[in-house]
Amino acid sequence: MILVVQLTQSLQRRKSLYEQTYEALREGILAGKLLPGDRLIETQIAQQLQVSRTPIREALRQLQQEDLVVADGSGWLRVATVSATEAVQLYNCRIALETLSVTEACAQASPAQLEQLVQCVTQAEALAERSPDAALSQQLLALDYRFHHLIAESTGNGCLVSLLEQVFNKMMLLRLQTTRHNPGVLEVRQEHQEIYQAIAQREVKTAVAAVTSHLKASKSRVVKELTQLKS
Amino acid sequence: MILVVQLTQSLQRRKSLYEQTYEALREGILAGKLLPGDRLIETQIAQQLQVSRTPIREALRQLQQEDLVVADGSGWLRVATVSATEAVQLYNCRIALETLSVTEACAQASPAQLEQLVQCVTQAEALAERSPDAALSQQLLALDYRFHHLIAESTGNGCLVSLLEQVFNKMMLLRLQTTRHNPGVLEVRQEHQEIYQAIAQREVKTAVAAVTSHLKASKSRVVKELTQLKS
DNA sequence: CGCTTGTATACCGCATACAATGTAGAAGCT
DNA sequence: AGCTTCTACATTGTATGCGGTATACAAGCG
User: Fold this and answer.
1) Quick count: other Cβ atoms within 10 Å of Cβ B52?
2) Does B19 contact A at CB distance below 8 Å?
3) Strand D: which positions are within 7 A of a protein CB?
4) B61, B62, B93 member nearest A160 (Cβ)
5) Ranges assigned E (strand) in B22-157
6) Same domain, A88 and A69
7) Is A157–B89 a contact, with Cβ atoms under 8 angstroms apart?
8) Do B160 and A93 touch (CB under 8 A)?
9) Domain holding A172: CATH number?
10) Is there a domain that residue B11 lies in?
11) Of A79, A99, A128, the domain-final residue
12) Backbone φ, ψ for residue B70 (5° rounding)
């Protein structure tokens, strides 16, 4: 368990140490520096980040509530793992929420927000031109989430955004356990394009259909891989 | 701001003070002892609950992440308020999630879980016989949430359960701002009955339709009341 | 040889002390 | 009076210490 993060010591006192610790840990988990199943020990983290245990405790509690960190049988905190069945459940929730998301987006999205969506899509397009490597696929993955996140935000429904964030968190955890190299980025860009078009033209049914099939495709890819891994 | 809760001092050390504090505060908020907008001051709470600030800080962080407590402009923590537009958004999310909930319940619910559902419905039925007062309507409200919660749990989808809990939390906050006496409990029991029947008979479409109309009815009642209050 | 028991240690829960920061109220100036 | 400035205080942020508890490993006993 190695966190090579240097917290901003003196400059920019805006963010509390608690917040910085939280972000460092979260980042560490989602970026794969802390692997699912790893134990998280307050004293160790305190030593590595050079802060006292108090802000760390708060950060851990928060991560625990987000289900990125779980207490195992004897109460030790560990980085959460996602099983195959949980993956399916996660996707089902995501589909339910994103169906609402695109529906409301069709009704609510402002021109500026649509513009952001386009940029997100074209950025991915541009990135995909480059020769594929691990870092690139990380970036594409980030853009993928950003795309879905932008749609959610364009609804103006804060509740929806925070619920989806919850789901995305565990989703990224899931990715860590499957492929480091996102498999379907090529098709994905095409599908994002379709989703965007439907939203821009306010065609609710088309948008819902597009996002549903997009997610179902992703779901079946992940599930397939997970079950293969097990055997 | 008065919390008259005596934490179990010596017996049952199973629950940490942090957890007890969390529950005390949560209970205080949801039961209306702490009103939306009230400031939450660490030192005051510490004095009232006779614990140090450390566990309180952790509890507050957790409540903050659940959106039951929010930081206002100058960083003070306050009990969250729910606006009329948030109420609508909340209901929309709830409908999306509960649609999934009954769908999966139709497929997954075990006989034992269906039995629990029946008991929940009949309990409400029995309670409704008694002469109505404030305490009774509180109990009926609790049974209402329990009913929906049981459905979610019967899906076996833990992710869904925790997302819905999130929504229910704020929902109860919303109720505090509208009526103390739940308006539609009479119709509600009828609708619950229908939902249960549909799930028991594994009729997905009927169940979805029933739960959707149930929630939409509730939504329009709440929205109506909120807009009336404003004028 | 296995089971219990003892002991050292690692870790956590909570309390407390101190530092930093922001807010309110009073005093002083115009 | 109205405005500014300064001080005192209230509150939160962070560090640390102490005590309890569980765990692991070793020694003693059956």
Assistant:
1) 11
2) no
3) 11-17, 21-23
4) B93
5) 69-71, 77-79
6) no
7) yes
8) yes
9) 1.20.120.530
10) no
11) A79
12) -130, 155
